User: Fold Peptide hydrolase from Paramarasmius palmivorus.
Amino acid sequence: MKLQSFFSILAIGLPLVARAARNITHDEIETNAAQGLRLLTLSDDADPVWKTEEEKLTIVYFDVTYVYEAQWNWTSTKSLATLTTSSDWVLNRAKTIATGRADITVTQFKHNFAQSTSSVITRIAGSASGPVTIVGAHLDSINMANPVNGRAPGADDDGTGTVNLIEAFRALVAAGFKPSTPGPLEFHWYAAEEVGLLGSHDIATSYKNTGVQVKAMVQFDMTGYFKPSTPEVISLITDNIDAGLNAFLKLVIAAYNTIPADPSDDPCGYACSDHASWNSVGYPAAFPFEANFVAENYNPNIHTDHDTTGVAGFSWTHSLEFVKLAVAAAYELSA
Assistant:
């Protein structure tokens, strides 16, 4: 997840290109991108500007470089092989869980950007062709103070969401669950969320461009912490989401969870996780979160080398509530 002081947020979809008043040429993109500059939109009503990677870390922005590059169907050949570890591990774990189920596919969605080679998608086939239900998390982490060499354990951001999805997937498979709705149930683990929602943007736009219908997308990003001495709740972020889906999730939480949904309005303030990729291209999305965002009851250790399970306030029992929610939401939306 990206919080206001750290935001590294991708501009989702081509509408942002249409809003820009200044014409961005092929040559300008090619020349500046080759120099390591990034094209950023700082607000909806301003022209995009070029900034260095270092400058990106200190401002709130949309990174629209890839959006403009997509207009010319460029393909990046950059790759960092060492960044495939988490993707490969999740892929192999999901394949093990799915063993013996011919109706389940486990695949990697290949990307062209340098930060990771692939996201991971598991699909439990539905009874026929129809809208897909998606639960998601991201499998990358970052150290904002030292993005190149700093340790980024990412236990909460987003190790918790990643393992929430693995356990929810395992539990449903172990129970023999099969969607009774026409559409399938998918679990997504996204690459490169921390550098601009790149993985989810790639997949969401691919689904949109190929006419895939999406019933709902629910994102799990940071689920293992709540500030000591504050109420334990499941917050439902209230911006860049579908209000109807949020209302539905409140009913699910009341029926299945042992802690309540946070009753307060809790906007994140910007496109703070992968749900925003889906919301921006017109799909209903929601973002259940570990604690009240506005009150800053969330984990203060994210994006540092202190994002571990040993910090005060981290709770696997709390995170387990989000596994329950993932299972319940998946079941209620696709059963």
